[in-house]
Amino acid sequence: MRSLTILISIVVILFSACQQESGNENDTAEMLLGVWKLQSATRNGNVTETLDNLKLEFVNDTLLYSNLSSSREEQTYKLENLTISTTGARINPDYKIVSISDSTLQLQMILNDYQFEFDFVQEP
Questions:
Q1: Which residues of 21-38 are buried (b: 16+ CB within 10 A; e: fewer)?
Q2: Range 58-83 average pLDDT
Q3: DSSP state of 40
Q4: pTM for this predicted structure
Q5: Residue 52 pLDDT > 50
Q6: Is 13 in a helix, a strand, or coil?
Q7: CB–CB of 84/2 below 8 Å?
Q8: Averaged over 21-40, what is the pLDDT?
Q9: Among residues 41, 75, 95, 108, which one has the fewest Cβ atoms lying within 10 Å of its Cβ?
Q10: Residue 82 and residue 86: Cα distance in Å, rounded?
Q11: pLDDT higher than 70, residue 15
Q12: DSSP-derived 3-state class of residue 50
């Protein structure tokens, strides 16, 4: 009986993960719109405060303002397969969307061989 419970739990978790990954990209693009302020960040798994003032502002489905390079810069972006690819600024990372809701956004990126994880909250 315990094995059956474990098997059912695994199937439910896998099904949930597949559902989240295959969500409608148009919904994700719409949820991105607005200003996102960094709440916390890690670099290679360790908490970092070097990016405390980081903000991402998604203006429409192609225009993004970011202060990742310490000053506010305009970038273009493309959302595809839960990856935000950026161009047009001094630093142009690809962000992987880990999760998104109407008020929170979790992103991952690799920059200069460092793995970053970001937790953002949406500004009103």
A1: eeeeeeeeeebbebebeb
A2: 96
A3: E
A4: 0.78
A5: yes
A6: helix
A7: no
A8: 86
A9: 108
A10: 13
A11: no
A12: coil
Residue whose entry in the numeric block shows the structure tokens 């607005």: 34
Burial category of 90 from C-beta neighbours within 10 Å (exposed 0-12, middle 13-18, buried 19 and up): exposed
Domain-by-domain residue ranges, the chain?
24-122
List, in sequence order, the alpha helices (H) in the chain. 2-21, 25-32
CA distances from 11 to 6, 24, 51 (A): 9, 22, 38
Q: What's the token pair of residue 67?
A: 């202060």
Q: What average pLDDT is seen over the chain?
A: 86
Residue 29 pLDDT exceeds 60: yes
Question: What residue has token string 């978790």?
Answer: 13
The CATH number for 24-122, chosen from 3.40.50.300, 2.40.128.110, 2.40.128.280, 3.40.309.10, is 2.40.128.280
Q: What is the pLDDT of residues 74-115, one digit of tens each?
A: 999 999 999 999 999 999 999 999 999 999 999 999 999 999
Token look-up 């990954």 returns 21
Cα separation, 23 vs 38, whole angstroms: 24
40: number of Cβ within 10 Å: 14
